[in-house]
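User: Batch of two.

Assistant: Item 1 of 2:
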Amino acid sequence: MKSVLTFSAINCFRNCPRKFKHRYVDFLRPLEKVDTLAFGKVVHGALELWHTLPADNHRLLAVLDFIDSKYPNRGTDAREKATWQLARAIMIGYAERYAQEEFEVLHVEKEFEAEIRNPDTGRTSQTFTMAGKVDGIVRAGDEVYLLEHKTASSLTSDYLDRLWTDTQIALYSFYLRQLGFRVIGIIYNVLLKSRLQQRGGETDEEFEARRTALAAKNKSGKSTAQRQEPESDEEFAARLHDWYARPEAFHRERIYLSQDRLAMVQEEVWEITQQYLDARSRGKWLLNTSNCFSYQRPCEYLPYCQSGFNPVVRDNIFEVRPPHEELATAATETPESEF
């Protein structure tokens, strides 16, 4: 049985073979779980539901119910409440902006598995297959695209330029073509995250300080300032709604994939599989220290590496858990053959 290879595994090995060994050979995952209520994950699930349900008056209500279910403690947890408010506002704005879609949705959360081939000989890999899952496959006119959802804090020219470097989506496009999907490019569905915050109002001390300062600037020595009251949930929801009614709150970017770009992806995948087989056969897993602090945070395996791979540190920080959790079929894979 061939082992499954995903983009996450490819990217991990390319960035740091030692990290790859921890995750995909030894199956180590931190005991401290990642927050399951991460904003991007919730919005992604809401978009999946939006593009799956019939386009009727009940669709948005179902999406908002889904969001509500993900934030059960919003009544007592201020941080959870703020994220819940943002998720609801972004989907209400999305529903209004794209009430009439520019494409037909063919598949949502489409999983695939395809053969990896030597780009020079066409020979099929005897060790690996490529698997993955895409947000959607859509048809616009006579053209077929992958649909990729992105949440972003801002939309700049640099951000849009970086979309071309998205190896994961180019890779998925290549392998989906092998399965008969005539994908010519990607539609990036970008949703901006508003930085608006609900106003909390003034304390007695804050109001008195502001009133005194205003009075000092007035010739009469008096001020008619009124204490600023907390913003109600309804008032804040209205401000968020106005923010998401702006044209720049949502963006669709189309990127076309050239044959050269797809050929490059195929070569990269094949070369990485060969590098992995070499590392496994020789038991050599290089440590790339330049990757220890990617994205302004330490690698989850940094304490283990710093300890010199001390088994006590390993057993206290990590648990053994199979990889490829992004795929529904991951639980059925054989751990001994995993990549």
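Item 2 of 2:
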Amino acid sequence: MDIGFFGGSLGRGGYDAMVSAATEAADAGLHTFWLSQIVGEADAMTLLGALGRDVPGIRLGTSVVPTYPRHPFVMAEQARTVNLLCGGRFSLGIGLSHQPVVEGMWGMSFDKPLRHAREYLDALLPLIQGDDTRAKGETIIARGRVTVGDPDDARPPVYLAALGPQMLKLAGRTCQGTITWMTGARTLASHTVPTITEAAAEANRPTPEIVAGFPMWVTDDVDHARERAATVFEIYGQLPSYRAMLDREGLDGPADLTIVGDEDTCAGRVEELRAAGVTQLSAAMFADNAEDTARTKAFLATLI
């Protein structure tokens, strides 16, 4: 199982701090440095293109870029450009986002999200490969080709964030794999992995990759860590798609899903994910002090 680092947004320290975090992850031997596209904040792919020039030795990926605001042509143009800047080390993670964001903030329709995802991929994937696309769906039309760099060098793997069975089947039939969040080991083992793997096999595609994102804090003060998690990740217990995953796992809220405790405890949780079929753990550190932050980073390095 590979180990990835879930980087933060441009906050304290700005871009220089992000370079330092990515460099530290690369030096520790971590496999991927992931960035989210957070509404109203810096563009994740632009940042990763810059990191691709400044930080060697680690893959860089989005986890994830929402599809609705970017036409497949725009997504493919930017993704292929970023992969060119990264020397072929970029992975494109995309997802639907959520109805309150798509409708409430962007003023777009969230009607039939599965249809949107299917039509989006029908248009996007040929463009990523450097091929002509002739996509004509109910909501998305795309005709033409993206010619950024050499087709073989500039095409990044595409991961579809998927939680429900139909989205997982779509990911298995079309993409490199999936990226999950707020999805526990039992759900991964009984629902996520078998659903996407069976769909890939039926489509004669390679076994898909499973990138599982988890909040992590190695600490002796478990009560404090869980209290902080309940605040930091509260929104994920309210969004319907994540709430469904927590309910499937039998958990009250996001704090119950976090990987928290001493090294032995956290190692046990990581082993559960490995056994469930996760191919990469993407760790989102949320410690509120320097000592535990360093301790969590050191623990991640031991997993390589």
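Residues 201 and 304 are 29 Å apart (CA to CA).
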